[in-house]
């Protein structure tokens, strides 16, 4: 039952205002005992926003499966990155960062287990959010020893070509001198 918003159109305006004031203040009122001026009858067209649904008509949405697969993929990628960064910082000897990424990897593993459990039970996906973080890391090549170095040449400009060769057919090499500290 709805209380009429047009209470001031009724002849007993004072009584209607008292009842509305009492209900708005939080006191319980029995609507059945109220005068008919406050209670409006609902017509069929006012009831259009309600739909009756049978339990057998409800199907699991394909969207839920998509959400589960997307979350699972994201968690696996995040777990792999955490393991990779943990190994990288471990190789560099940074223990605090290594431990931080190992804890993050454990958290990812736990979240993957929770996700698999809720999917197996047929529940809706757990609440989730996406967060983007930026970490400063050192680019390293673990296959190189500590006495080796990788040099990347991005572009060679104004390289003179010897006679008889065009600039497109030029094979060049780079000599890189790195001053090694002497113990003098």
Automatic annotation (TrEMBL):
The residue ranges flagged as biased composition, category Polar residues, are 1-12
Residues covered by region (Disordered) = 1-26
Task: Write down the InterPro entries for this protein, in alphabetical order.
Answer: CC2D1A/B
One MF annotation (Gene Ontology) recorded for this entry: DNA-binding transcription repressor activity, RNA polymerase II-specific
Q: Which PANTHER family match?
A: COILED-COIL AND C2 DOMAIN-CONTAINING PROTEIN 1-LIKE (PTHR13076), COILED-COIL AND C2 DOMAIN-CONTAINING PROTEIN 1B (PTHR13076:SF5)
- This chain belongs to the protein called Uncharacterized protein
- Name the source organism: Albula glossodonta
């Amino acid at each position: 039952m709805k209380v009429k918003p047009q209470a001031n159109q009724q002849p007993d305006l004072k009584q209607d205002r008292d009842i509305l004031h009492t209900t708005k203040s939080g006191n319980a009122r029995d609507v059945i005992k109220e005068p008919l001026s406050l209670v409006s009858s609902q017509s069929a067209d006012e009831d259009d926003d309600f739909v009756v649904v049978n339990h057998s008509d409800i199907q699991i949405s394909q969207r839920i499966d998509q959400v589960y697969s997307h979350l699972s993929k994201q968690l696996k990628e995040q777990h792999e990155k955490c393991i990779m960064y943990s190994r990288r910082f471990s190789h560099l000897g940074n223990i605090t960062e290594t431990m931080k990424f190992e804890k993050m990897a454990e958290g990812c593993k736990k979240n993957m287990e929770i996700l698999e459990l809720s999917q197996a039970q047929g529940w809706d996906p757990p609440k989730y959010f996406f967060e983007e973080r930026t970490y400063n890391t050192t680019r390293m090549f673990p296959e190189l020893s500590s006495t080796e170095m990788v040099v990347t040449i991005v572009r060679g400009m104004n390289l003179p070509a010897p006679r008889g060769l065009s600039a497109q057919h030029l094979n060049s090499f780079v000599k890189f001198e790195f001053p090694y500290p002497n113990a003098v």
